[in-house]
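Appendix C reproduces, verbatim, an entry submitted by the partner laboratory led by Prof. M.T., so that reviewers can inspect both the input and the predicted structure.
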Amino acid sequence: MIVSRRWLEALLARPLDAKDVADRLAMLCAPVDAVVPLHQDLQDVLIARVLEVKQHPNADRLSLCSVDAGGPRPSKSSAAPPTCRRGRRIRSRPSAPRCRVG
């Protein structure tokens, strides 16, 4: 049977440690075969808030954006789609240490 740690946390209304849950289930005659963390490939995805949008001077389908990705100052994004608007959240590349999602 596959059980989500978040489901157990919601059921018990408290945070749980995956290793502790596995150990307790093993003591109760329900051995755990594996603890599999999900979405490990998403650790370098950043979500940034768009602060300002300008038209790209050399491309009709791109915008120049000033974004807040949790760094000390806003950064520039030159490959934003034309649907990008102020206040929206967009995916940003992790070129410098910033806040991580996850």
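Residues 96-102 have pLDDT under 50 and may be disordered. Additional entries are available on request from the coordinating office.
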